[in-house]
Hints:
By secondary structure, the protein is mainly α. The chain has nine helices and no strands. The protein is elongated.
Amino acid sequence: xxxxxxxxxxxxxxxxxxxxxxxxxxxxxxxxxxxxxxxxxxxxxxxxxxxxxxxxxxxxxxxxxxxxxxxxxxxxxxxxxxxxxxxxxxxxxxxxxxxxxxxxxxxxxxxxxxxxxxxxxxxxxxxxxxxxxxxxxxxxxxxxxxxxxxxxxxxxxxxxxxxxxxxxxxxxxxxxxxxxxxxxxxxxxx
Length: 190
């Protein structure tokens, strides 16, 4: 999204009680709902939990929009909130279950970009399910860096910024994730 449009949206969201305030949040929601849901789904590995995390994310954005630093990228701030909300949901549910997304239990049309991937290409669908199984062996802390780095295609620096971690820590977590995934794949194919 255009950074100047992001700044306009944030400024509108900072004036409660005006029509611009409601319009600003509608624009923000429309622009970022898919990203927030996609990240939440990939971290929680469950559509119901992803919807909860997405809802929490937008509530936190609403409550904290005045704390957003206008010199920062809005998308980075939103990613950080979405990631933290998804991790919180995982911790509360104390889940370490399979990362399958039940497509038949599809949420309303609010979100769900993933549906189009699954419906359009059967081989790709199977590959996504395999990758979801692989993600399920990782702790939420490791899963987050894998999701942001490889599925969201963010650089090490961007991942570090979003998670408020040093780049070295991001690389270390990715390395541990690679080892866990490698170990899982060896067990699966032996």
